[in-house]
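Protocol step 4 of 6: record predicted structures for both targets in the notebook before any analysis. Target 1:
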Amino acid sequence: METVGSRVKFRRRQLKMTQKDVADLVGISASAVTQWESDSTGLSAENLLKLSSVLRCNPKWLLLGYGSPDENVPFEPSEYNSVPIISWVQAGDWADNYSEASLHDYKYIKTSINVSDKAFALIVKGQSMTATNGDISIPEGAIVIVEPEYGYIDDINGKIIVAQQKNSNEATIKKLIIDGPNKYLAPLNPQFNPIQVNGDCIIAGKVKQVIINLN
């Protein structure tokens, strides 16, 4: 383990985490984790601290290889953001109306990822995102952290999003697929059908983290 990337990969596998697990907790893309592990890109000081917290390892060991991974390591991330848990009815226009809401009326959940002030959380309903195979599954009852400031539409192609069709009074969680001129909201569960959308869909935000309570 002579490089930063080799130590990242070693510790991730030691903790039985996928690259997607690490990416969601740090707040970056899975491809960024791949680049770190292959030493294609380096770690910023901010990401070094976040990654060492997620991997529960000494940042000095991660960066330089000194000591052991478990030496003087805090168990929990040191900083959290609090995100309001809202309803699926509110989600579609939350980014436009959140400042008018009585934020103290909501329950909050803590997240260690970087999110904007407009970020919100939702409790997943139904089985459409419960996958039968693949790297990610979002079961009913899981909590998703949603970031309304997602950039451009091409930036979220292939990503899990929260969206609302104009003929519906509730938002939904799906994977956005852009295929040429066509756009689809695709479930992860093959028993459900994808939904083709055009100008009749409002994207409420990108899912940045999935929190599953195993109790």
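Target 2:
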Amino acid sequence: MNKVGLLIIYNHRYDKNIPRLEEIYRKRFSHIFHIVPFYDGKQENVISVYESSYYFSGYISQTYAHLKDSGFTHFFVVADDMIINPKLNENNLWLQMGIDVDECYIDGLIVLQERKTFWSHLLQAMDYVVAKEGVEISNILPSQKEAEKCFDRYNISYTPIPKGLFWGWILQQKEWKMRKRIWRYMRKRRLDYPLVGGYSDICLVTADVMENFALYCGAFAATDLFVELAIPTSMVLSTKKLKVNKDIKLDSGAMWSEEDMEFLQEYDFNLTKLMENFPANKLYLHPIKLSKWK
């Protein structure tokens, strides 16, 4: 029998969202936990965490310390400004998504050595070092060779970033300062440790890998690795059975631009109307700022 813990991650303290999200999910998930930074209220299913929202992978590691002995078979991690397709519940997640119960999920992976469009966190990935003063994680993370084997499993590169990509990133910049900054990185093209990026506001983690996943998430948070590098890398290092959005039945619902979000106007920013007429082919919609919805 599967037991799913729904972990709702709050980047910032929005206590008003707690009852609204309870209303959205309580009929579908028996075990809901709100992961709220610096929460000092009294609601029992709210777990207070202490970390920057830039490194909310640390939220997951702190939360797991509270839940690791609670018998959960799966941990479904979602953002507080994300709405999951109303068809999904704790009993049919795998059927609706089209994955096996022993598989993990993350929305997608960004292979840094193949990224043609500039992403500011590429430079942060190149600056990152495991041996950070005051934090000893070199014996916590897999060794370089072990990490490379994990990356090989998914055909993810850990080679130096090609020079050609740098020239493309430079040409995409309008500001001379950024062009110059990227150019400086061209000499140092090798990462200190294998890293992969990815959209990290939703993931499904099986209990058998959760301990390592949470451990690596915490280690990366402690060494200030941006969350959209920390969570995907931790997932690749933790599980041999990882699916991404292209592998499942439902499409990504990430809305990156105003144009992507235009269709929301037909719902009149009415949450009930959205839930009753949710796009059938979407796994989720994100972002949905609840403060703007009736």
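Step 5 preliminary note on target 2. The chain has two domains: 4-109+198-292, 115-128+148-184. The CA atoms of residues 122 and 225 lie 11 Å apart.
Proceed to step 6 after PI sign-off.
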